[in-house]
Amino acid sequence: MAKLLDKQHYKCAMGAMQTVQAIERALPILHAGPGCAQKLADSAGSSGDYSPNIFPCTSINEKDVLFGGTAKLRTTIENALKVVDADLYVVLTGCIPEIVGDDVGEVVSQFADADKPVLYASTAGFRGNNYRGHEQVIDALIEQYLKRSDSRQKGLVNLWADVPYQDLFWLGNIRELERLLREIGLTPNTIFGYGHGVADIDRIPQAELNILVSPWVSVTNMKKMEHKLGIPWIHCPTLPIGANETSRFLRKAGEAAGADPARVEQVIAENEGYYYYLIERYADMFLETRVMAKQFSVVADAQYALGITKFLVNDLGLIPAAQFVTDDTPKMYRETIRREFEDLNYGIRAEVQFETDSYLIHQKIREHDYGGYPLILGSYYEKELAAELSGHFLNISWPVQDKVVLDDFYAGYTGGIRLIEDIYSIAMQRFN
Description:
Elements: H1 17-21, E1 26-31, H2 34-40, H3 62-67, H4 70-83, E2 88-93, H5 95-100, H6 104-109, E3 118-122, H7 130-144, E4 156-160, H8 170-183, E5 187-189, H9 198-203, E6 209-213, H10 219-229, E7 233-236, H11 242-257, H12 261-281, H13 283-288, E8 295-300, H14 302-314, E9 319-320, E10 323-325, H15 331-342, E11 352-354, H16 358-367, E12 375-378, H17 383-388, E13 392-395, H18 412-428
Parallel strand pairs: 1-2, 2-3, 4-5, 4-6, 6-7, 8-9, 8-10, 8-12, 10-11, 12-13
């Protein structure tokens, strides 16, 4: 029986155009109808080289459904190479060309001798959402572009986190994680954001280690790189927010990458010292505030639902009500993620529900007794619900409509402090 979803928290797989746009001087070429392109374009998403609303698209129509759209795709790629000065071109396929059987791989192979690389990724909406589409783009790099290297650069580690632009804080988060890895003596390599493009992609095979910071997105990518490129990897399923998880992250990354343990501990001690200094200054406010219940719910993808839950419990001592993971996590990963929600300090366990329907999520939140004004961290869809419950609301997941984020972040020690500031600033507004 078909199920209608109310306000799902993701886009279709071709939303991976934003993954491409996050790579400097990379250009998505859409093989899809014009409606798909219009709905997926996001004015907040671009590497900065090209407008996020300007990209080549085949704009296929009824005629192409009958006779195929490969000729139009070939022409679109040819013209993109002539007109747009990019370093990397990635063809993304929509539903129609995959349903009618267009051989996109064969068309793209005709550009193997082009001056710049042309790749393709299967991103039809019926294959999944944009979290899966993100994985397909990384797969395209692994399978069609990257080659095994016989040399390794000492201390070089590839850093992978969650989905660009789908994650509101992706840029600031990855820059902060890079900074922390540099502090412990490693050389992080990332391919997204300002100053990161094809040259960084070319360095991927030279790394000694892949570090994945994500509950499930890109796990398959890491396995493929280990098999094809021979790069070992470590999995850090929890986005490190605050002292507890950030110190754990640095120790794990440092040990796996061969960093000096003494240096790692020195960096942790320095950062924790300042972090707890700030916490202690406002401890009375955290402990004595009467305008916010101690219970909270997070409505977000697995990365933020897990990362924020661990932070609020382990660092701030709040109590988790039900937590909701909204990214349609594949069933094979759910039990592992569920165990992460049970791995909290003080013997606390958080109940997690994997749910994509906002109507059902909101019903469950309404039914729960938070013992006061609830704290709800989620998407813009939850704002009205929080107001209905006289709760405190913070927009931390897609869609976002009440804030602009350029390079803010919640990762790391500093990110944890920023998250505390955001939460308690909202709580303090009850006094005004």
